[in-house]
Amino acid sequence: MRAESRPTFVFVHGGSSNARAWGPLQNELALLGHRSYAVDLPGHGDRADSPAAYYRQPQDAAELAAAPSPMDGVTLQDNVRHVVAAVRRLAEHGPVVLVGNSLGGLTVSAVANAVPDLLHRVVYLSALCFSDPAMLTEPWDVVDENLLDAAAARITVPSPPDAPDPAVARLNWRSAHADPELFAQLKTAIMADATDGQFRVLLDSMDPDENYSVLEPGVVVRADGWGRVPHTYVRLSEDRSITPAVQDYLIRKADELTPDNPFDVHTLDASHVGYFSRPQPFADLLTRLV
């Protein structure tokens, strides 16, 4: 395959994350001769004005709770415009494969609805994919035994009563460094297949804020948009944040929408963010897809 005909992998991070989380996987793909681009969604990453109180040691809890968020006012459409702009530029150089993890799957879905003709394939790495509007408002017919909800509750920073955007949640990931029990709980939920050192690096890379206003009807995949694009779901069998049962439910519901274009399903023995701690099997799988 000629280098210029190879696709570019475009990565969309999950909640409270950013482009840095994809670094190890991007390095592995480069060793295999593949281009990639990791997106910082609006309000995330190195150029976001995250609260200084989150990084300052020792932390001041009151200052951290009161600090404004770079996520205030960010919408799903802001995410979509940002990613589509990158995809358009990269599509000038060859096929584009759009890859999302976790909450990033919602942006991937909305982008695929918007510009299906610009995408060679979309890939969900244990990522959310909503295929029915009722999934936003009604209980799901699946037992969700995830470990992340309880762990996240322990690091949630209460919002002040006059918070400008109630949909923004602030999580103090760095507080786990000083609490061995909390550290172990978060690591089990997110990246149990990592060393403690690797998980410390991930914790320090995490953004404190996430905007859950993206949970709106625009994330629901459409047969006439997303449904025209080949799509792959990579099940992560050791995921304790989006459990295999939930992943299978998402796959089944999406296949009901597009039975003539079902998910191409693969399984890796990995945690929710296993691509950070063990990127090689992820890189091998992605390159086989193309």
* Fraction in helix: 25-40%
Note the run of SSEs as H and E: EHEHHHEHEHEEHHEEHEHH
Estimate nothing, just give the exact number of structural domains: 1
Largest sheet: 6 strands, parallel
Question: In whole angstroms, how far apart are the ends?
Answer: 10 Å
| Uncertain spans | none
Task: Give the CA-based shape.
Answer: globular
> What name is given to the CATH topology?
Rossmann fold
The name of the CATH superfamily reads: Alpha/Beta hydrolase fold, catalytic domain
Structural class: alpha/beta
CATH level 1 class label: Alpha Beta
Mean pLDDT comes to: 95
Radius of gyration: 18 Å
Strand order of the largest sheet: 2-1-3-4-8-9
What is the helix tally? 11
- In the CATH hierarchy, what is the architecture at level 2? 3-Layer(aba) Sandwich
